[in-house]
Amino acid sequence: MSEVAISQDASRRELDRLSHLAEDVIRRARAAGASQAEVSASIDTGLSVNVRLGEVETVEHTRDRGFGLTVYFGQRKGSASTADLNADSIQATLEQACAIARYTEEDPASGLADASRMATQFPDLDLWHPWIIDTADAIALGQDIEDAGRAHAGITNSEGAGVQMGESVSVYANSHGFVGRERGTRHSLSLSLIAGDEAGMQRDYWYDSVRSAQDFMSAKALGNKAAERTLARVGARRLSTRQCPVMFSPEIARGLIGHLIGAVSGGALYRRASFLVDHAGKQIMPSWLNIVERPYLMRGQGSGAFDAEGVATRDSALIENGVLARYVLGSYSARKLGIESTGNAGGIHNMVVEPGHADGGQADDFHGMLKRLGTGLLVTEVMGQGVNTITGDYSRGAAGFWVENGQIAYPVEEITIAANLRDMFAGIQAVGADVDKRSHLLTGSILLGQMTIAGE
């Protein structure tokens, strides 16, 4: 058995212990004069192995504890945290949080989320799948992945294969009487390879991320995928500067959706630091396009019955027929804006971009999306931080493939793609059915009508 895995029964005992601790600290905070209090407590356990060229590079066992307390004295807030769950550390954390709150300024937007919004139902979302793997087997699996990739002719080196197992149990509780318990597992496999010819070296990778190890692609399939992606980049060229259609592969397309979420999230909005301020109810995408948050997907990477404040999550449209249906808010930002929390304190829960296109009918798979692109750029990698949420300006280094008549013609590199997010969102022509399920942002390829390519 793994040296670090938490058993089914042990996970429940840990949740019981964290729940009792959280409730006790909240009672003590109230006794110390706090009008409200909230606690987050967690235990994370993991195994991480990295191998390179058949040899073990690193083996890491982790068991991390976290405890955070926030108290409110009226509308004055104090927070403190510790990585130690012993009684003395918890008491010191409580005293520190109370001391901070007594000296901070009042903030009219501070306080717990509304009691009426607390979650009351906690369905089993199939998120707990401990992976019983010991260190020796994890090393052997990493070696099998790397061997499969290195077996391809043209692969000249390896940056290594990784095998990670992770388990987390956590509790959020507050003085409304809410106690929310969660447990989940996340496991991953990865491989990065190098190929080269007289023109230079190319690197690429692949990975898989799952809740249950039973859902992993095979070691051979992952190694083959990483090798095929790396070899496909050999002989990459630069493009001349031009304007053309651009298609983002699924793993890159989810970054585009991430920029949308950042622009409609509370902090950017109440600071008026977003190009989508005051855009709720307005058309920002094509009328056929829908994006829906689905917190209750079984084994979903972002599934959960409540947010970081205990507010119940629910299925809810973000984009409905191209219209921005709502913002992404916790209770603090909602109060700053004078509206209600959307149950997104701490982030989103499985944002699903529904596949489709303006023509209606069945959504395209990856090859169908290439045909729809016709002649243009397929982006498989982006670099740099050139995204300005305030203005919407988008300019990033990129690499990928030039596509002609729906077929990949040759790899490209050392280019910059540029546009404004406002135009990019409005100019989406299709979303593919080739959904990347390794994230809480679930989207297929996204085809944009036009971007500027800066190259030679």
Automatic annotation (TrEMBL):
Entry keyword Hydrolase: yes
A GO molecular function held by the record: metallopeptidase activity
Family: Belongs to the peptidase U62 family.
Organism: Dyella dinghuensis
Alphabetized PANTHER family for the sequence: METALLOPROTEASE PMBA
Entries under InterPro entries matching the protein: Metalloprtase-TldD/E_C, Metalloprtase-TldD/E_cen_dom, Metalloprtase-TldD/E_N, PmbA, TldD/PmbA_N, TldD/PmbA_sf
UniProt protein name: Metalloprotease PmbA
Pfam families documented for this protein: PmbA_TldD_1st, PmbA_TldD_2nd, PmbA_TldD_3rd
